[in-house]
Amino acid sequence: MLLFGGTGDLVTRKLLPALYRRYAAGQVSEESRIVGIARSALGVQDYAHQAETACREFLGTEFDEPHWRGFSRLLGYVKIDAGDAADYETLAAALQGREQIVRVFFYSTASTLFAMITQQLARAGVVTPLSRVVLEKPLGNDVASAHLINEQVGAIFTEQQIYRIDHYLGKEAVQNLMALRFGNALFEPLWRRGLIRHVQITVAEELGVERRGQFYDATGALRDMVQNHLLQLLCIMAMEPPTSSDPDAVRDEKLKVLRALRPLRDRDVLVKTVRGQYRAGSVHGKPVPGYLEEADISPESTTETFVALKAEIDTWRWAGVPFYLRTGKRLQDRITELVVTFDDVPHPIFDKAATTEAANLLVIRLQPDESITLTILAKNPGEGMRLKPVNLALDLGETFKTRSLDAYERLLMDTVKGNLTLFMRRDELDAAWRWIDPIIAGWREFDERPKSYMAGSWGPAASSALIGRDGFEWHDET
Ligand code: BG6
């Protein structure tokens, strides 16, 4: 496992702890090697020390000395400056004699370096038939740049060797959404227009841009979150039942959803999307600075830290059912959830409580806890026939009483096992960018600057207005 960007945020905060956990679970053999690769001139001991500090911090009580001693013996480090051919020779020497073993090259660097790293690896002769490459998102920043990267990486690795990662697909709860939809006959007949009124997908974060100001300011929420995580959630929510769980059967169905998304063009962009940027405020009572005051952010930045939009899927199943997507940093709570609002009964025969707007709701919560809640109307006890919403609630953590795997634990092991199901195929990525690009073009054309929202709120007022115009409200605002 060769981790480019080996001293960076993702490797130290997520990948090494994930690999440690798999090791502690007995899933990583003693013959394996985990090699950090970065520009700094570090010794293996220095790298192991950095890794230990990070793992102690991020694993807390899960960190265990004997397991760490074993795990640290698998660690290696190679200094590579991405463009320096001589550095790759060191890597080639380190890999010599291990040609018959699976190699996973994980690129956790800016995607502008992907092509160069790939070419250098090929030149150094370290790409074997048993090699795989993992590409972190966002891959490119529009259709054209993503195309170029895919071409250049694709010149060396076959599509079967390329793992485009979207860690949301590795989340236990996302897999559960597949189980709910395709493991039960109950929901499928209801999963369509005429029975579902609208769907909301929210990925709300309390965090700001943390130490990633430079990356974030050049990226923004639309590219960082909507182009990948939110569209992937939408696909799993909206796709037709695949014929099997084979990677391509699943990916074919997701692709059809992406291709059926109605393009947002010209003035549509202004009506159906909202851009926001946080100003200073407080999150859970703790004062936090505004986006423009964060480190590495230009004080004139017009990058969005919040997006809300209305998506429509032009298919028989979904015609006329709006999908509202929303994501932002420094919002009131950390919540990822999908909310399905079902239609009212066609002819009410009972009095409903005045407050009961949406009778049947299915809320699939992915974070911070994993739960599925179905709100139904029940009779309010006592005289008379008054209906009241009550919850049928399933807390998955409580039910299974076991720690679920972190997304990266599952995805890293999938790269080793060669299972592509939870990774994006090239055509999916392309379709996602094709839908995103006109939104960015529209914002540019109409000089649509982000609307300010206070940190710790639910985003700009325009976000409530977007959904309000159709007569609905965001779930947490009801
Ligand atoms: C990453 C984004 O892909 O996902 C980050 O680059 C974001 O900006 C993160 O914070 C959210 O992931 P999670 O798993 O914490 O919801």
Any overview of this molecule?
The protein is built from 15 helices and 18 strands. It has about 475 residues and is an alpha/beta fold. A 10-stranded mixed sheet has the order 14-17-16-15-13-7-12-11-8-18, sandwiched between helices. Strands 3-2-1-4-5-6 form a 6-stranded parallel sheet, sandwiched between helices. It has a two-stranded antiparallel ribbon with strand order 9-10. Helix 6 (about 145-155) packs antiparallel against helix 14. The radius of gyration is 24 Å and the shape is globular. The mean pLDDT is about 95.
Give a brief outline of the structure.
Helices cover 36% and strands 21% of the residues.
